[in-house]
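[step 3/7] fold_predict: job queued, chain A
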Amino acid sequence: MTQKNITSVNESIDRIVETVNGLPEEAIRWQPSNDEWSIMQIMAHIVEALPYWIEEIELLVETPGKEWGRNHLHEGRLEAVKPETVEAISVVEMVKELEKVKRTVQAGIENLTEEQLSAEATSVNPNFGTKPLSFIIEHLIDQHVNKHEGQINRNLSKLSSKSSK
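[step 4/7] structure written:
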């Protein structure tokens, strides 16, 4: 399971990097609305979120059954996407950080055993309840980055629609 997830995360991040490398900086920093993130904010979120979840996995391996997770108001999550936070970093640096995230994910999950992956613990988020460690990898790492890749593509579609008017 974990190799499939590592490959999937790497491929999603590679596609994000490829997309970003072909864009002008204004497009990367353009925010579709006050309620939507710019591509830069999406990348900043990925750079913050995936290492957060790897750290949660490491804590669950050390302390099986420990409560895990966070909500959308987690200060690290909010700080990572604040406009002033993302304005302070260059696109080139953000891409380098995304590349580091691939290595972090691989190092964090590649040696997990089936026993560790099936160990259950309760999330602080009542929507998740009690889940196996594999859920964090599938849902909060692999599917999560893939979902944000789709969000980047939607941003570009909105930008294209806006530009053609």
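[step 5/7] annotate
The chain has a mean pLDDT of 93.
The longest strand covers residues 120-122.
exit 0
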